[in-house]
Amino acid sequence: MQENNSVGIVAAQIAHFSEPLTLKSGVVLPQFDLVYETYGTLNADKSNAVMICHALSGTHHVAGKYSEDDKYPGWWDNLIGPNKPLDTNKFFVIGVNNLGGCHGSSGPNTINPKTKKPWGSKFPIVTVEDWVNAQARLADYLGIKQLAAVVGGSLGGMQTLQWTITYPERIRHALVIAAAPNLTAQNMAFNEVARQAIITDPEFHGGDYYAHKTVPHRGLRIARMLGHITYLSDDAMGAKFGRKLQDTIKYSFDVEFEMESYLRYQGDKFAGEFDANTYLRMTRSLDYYDPALNFGGDLSKALANVKAQFLVVSFTSDWRFSPARSREIVKALLDNELTVSYAEVTAAHGHDAFLMPDAHYHQILRTYLSNIQV
Amino acid sequence: MTNNVNITNSVTKFRQDFAIIAGWVSFGTKILDLGCGDGALLTYLRDSLEVKGYGVEKDDVNWLACQQARINVIQMDLEDGLSGFEDQSFDTVILSQTLQAMHHTEEIVQEMLRVGREIIVTFPNFGYWRNRIQITGGRMPVSKILPYQWFDTPNVHLCTIEDFEIFCKKYKILILERSVITEGKSVNFMPNLLGSLAMYRLKSIV
User: Fold this and answer.
1) Which are the catalytic amino acids of A?
2) Which residues does residue B173 pair with via DSSP β-bridges, in sequence order?
3) What's this model's pTM, rounded to 2 decimal places?
4) ipTM
5) Which tens digits make up the pLDDT trace of A68-92?
6) Residue A152's CB: how many other CB atoms inside 10 A?
7) Closest-approach residue (CA) in chain B for A336
């Protein structure tokens, strides 16, 4: 019953690109791999493709399971599947692991073909613009000239926005969710603390810890714990944990409050499966993203060539990517007389709300997506 | 699909006030409808005049109805002003039967004049004789156009046609056109007494 609207058992694929890719930094990647998954069927005129852009810790595994007894499905499984808001009976959905990621695409933990050793610290810093260029290569590879839509939340929303800027002819609809046109100083400060936790971990070895057969577990764990605090709202944390104790007060620094147990669990889990070098690069990419920078800070001018139609969504309790930041995007779109709808969803979950199956939020996406012609 | 049926109904059911507004809006122009509800007016203007329309709506259910009707809709509270919209960026800004429910009445009219080259404001005329009779009888008026009890009404700033025109004078607002209707019929004689809905096309004098 539960599996009725699942995309079912899925498998990742690898696309190899032998044409060099010039990054925003000027560094040239002579070749690279992207790991990706697809759900649904590409139609005859290839007009029904939807690209999903992942956020900080996301992957190409967006929906479905790898085996029947797989414990968890892909990270946005509640959105994608037959008769789900992003309906795979209608759309051909592509999930891709970004360049510099740690789930199979070329990144710090993969082998540099030139040296036959892990890239480590030598893997270049990649930006949102670079990711979008790499994703466009994947679209080429799949024979898709124009995407019906690009969908992304948070850092994924920034990539979605960038798609409309870099490739105005190749994207018809942009769903920009819980995003911002750039990070605030406070937001970048969180990233800096996270990076410092990693870089000052004695096991970091300047990013070349693979050679030392170790990982900066402590640093990455603290970075993730900090991140988790900012993804939840004060109210959501209060509702979930409050001041609940695990037992009685013990006058120690062990786990006593349930919130501590949650943070440590999340930190450990993440540090056990994610790569610290990727985390550094993802946060840097967030910091650098600022499409208005070359337009005197005027986002409206930065969007002058955009043609896509937009759905922008924010969440009332999201303080890391607040509704005010989404409204900046909306204003710039209105200034360019673009087709845009904006929803401000009343939600208690903070930034994490964009991943939750809130009924109204999903109805918004379902309605918008059902109006897209393929 | 009951929703689709509803939308069809709201479009096909003739509304005199929509027809008057359509007469005040030019073909293919850019329109902002504040408190656009389910998007019925914008749908009507889009289908009849091919306007480029945007709606502003606070309510979740209405927002979805607009989205279903493929109306561009921005979810925000009008009481916060129109800071997301540039000066003189719309041909016409419409406030249809919402003025009386605004807390910041002066601010919203000023904001409309800032954003729109022309504005259209419509409101239930509190001076309508049926309202006067109910007041004379010692009760707050309750009618089809003012369907609320005093304790649950969203209408906080009701006014008469006379009141509104004094307001326009005070704020240097030029009345380009006025239309007053009762039960869908136009009222030319003693409008402040005999008219139930007042409609204005306005612009800033300066």
Assistant:
1) 154, 318, 351
2) B204
3) 0.95
4) 0.93
5) 999 999 999 999 999 999 999 999 9
6) 26
7) B89
Q: Is B30 in Cβ contact with A346 (below 8 Å)?
A: no
Mean pLDDT for chain B overall: 93
The answer to whether the beta carbons of residues A109 and A278 sit under 8 Å apart is yes
Per the CB < 8 Å rule, is A367 touching B67? yes
Q: What are the tokens at B1?
A: 């699909």
Phi–psi pair at B195, nearest 5 degrees: -100, 135
- Rounded distance between C-alpha atoms, residue B125 and residue B182, angstroms: 10
The letter for the amino acid at B117 is R
Which chain B residue shows the shortest CA-CA distance from A324?
Answer: B84
Backbone angles phi, psi at A211, to 5 degrees: -65, -25
B29 contact A CB<8A:
no
Rounded CA separation A349/A154 (Å): 14
Provide the terminal-to-terminal Cα distance of chain B, rounded to the nearest Å: 49
Note whether B58 and B76 are within 8 A (CB): yes
Token readout for A198 is: 């990693």
Residue A98 contacts residue A126 (beta carbons within 8 Å): yes
Nearest C-alpha neighbor of B145 from the set B167, B127, B163 = B127
Instruction: Tell me the pLDDT tens digit for each residue of B67-126.
Output: 999 999 999 999 999 999 999 999 999 999 999 999 999 999 999 999 999 999 999 999
B75 touches chain A (CB under 8 A): yes
For residue B6, give the 3-state DSSP assignment: helix
DSSP A4: G
Nearest to B41 by CA among B61, B64, B69, B68: B69
Q: What is the pLDDT of residue B206?
A: 76
For residue A315, the distance in angstroms to the closest alpha carbon of chain B comes to: 12
Identify the sign of the CA torsion A148, A151, A155, A157.
positive
Cβ A54 vs Cβ A98: under 8 Å? yes
Taking CB atoms and an 8 Å limit, are A334 and B89 in contact across chains? yes
Subunit contact B75:A343, Cβ cutoff 8 A = yes
Q: Which residue in A334, A337, A343 is closest to B63 by CB distance?
A: A343
User: How many whole angstroms separate alpha carbon B96 and alpha carbon B42?
Assistant: 11
Give the distance from residue B64's alpha carbon to the nearest chain A alpha carbon, in angstroms: 7
The two structure tokens encoding residue A170: 């190749």
Q: Which of B63, B66, B84 has the CB atom closest to A331's CB atom? A: B84
